[in-house]
Design goal:
Layout (H helix, E strand, L loop, with lengths): L1 H12 L14 E6 L5 E5 L5 E2 L5 E4 L2 E8 L2 E9 L2 E10 L4 E5 L2
Parallel strand pairs: 1-8
Antiparallel strand pairs: 1-5, 2-3, 2-6, 4-5, 6-7
């Protein structure tokens, strides 16, 4: 009888519910890692943006300049003082970031 009681208690204790909540960030980002001064960014052939005035922050000792972009494939062109430094095609999914390291 005692074994039956222990088995019954174990079954009741295991009948709890489990619930989880996931929060996703809907925005996608292009993160430029490194000193972006004197750089110009051209995204998908649009007008070039001077990164001198862009907002940057420090993350783990590295400068990060971040831009919100639409999910999908993008052409990223970075020039410094008129010289091509980076030309890369990137793909970013919804809620994620893609990083491009500056030389």
């Amino acid at each position: 009888m005692r074994k039956l009681y222990i088995l019954f208690c174990a079954l009741i204790a295991g009948c709890g519910s489990y619930q989880t909540v996931s929060q996703t960030q809907e925005a996608s980002y292009l993160a430029l890692i490194g000193d972006s001064s004197d750089y110009n960014l051209q995204l998908d052939g649009n007008v070039s943006i001077n990164l001198e005035s862009a907002d940057s922050y420090n993350e783990n000792g590295k400068t990060v300049t971040r831009f919100e972009i639409e999910p999908g494939t993008h052409d990223v062109v970075l020039t410094q003082n008129g010289e091509l430094k980076v030309h890369r095609r990137v793909f970013v999914t919804e809620g994620n970031s893609v990083e491009v390291r500056l030389p």
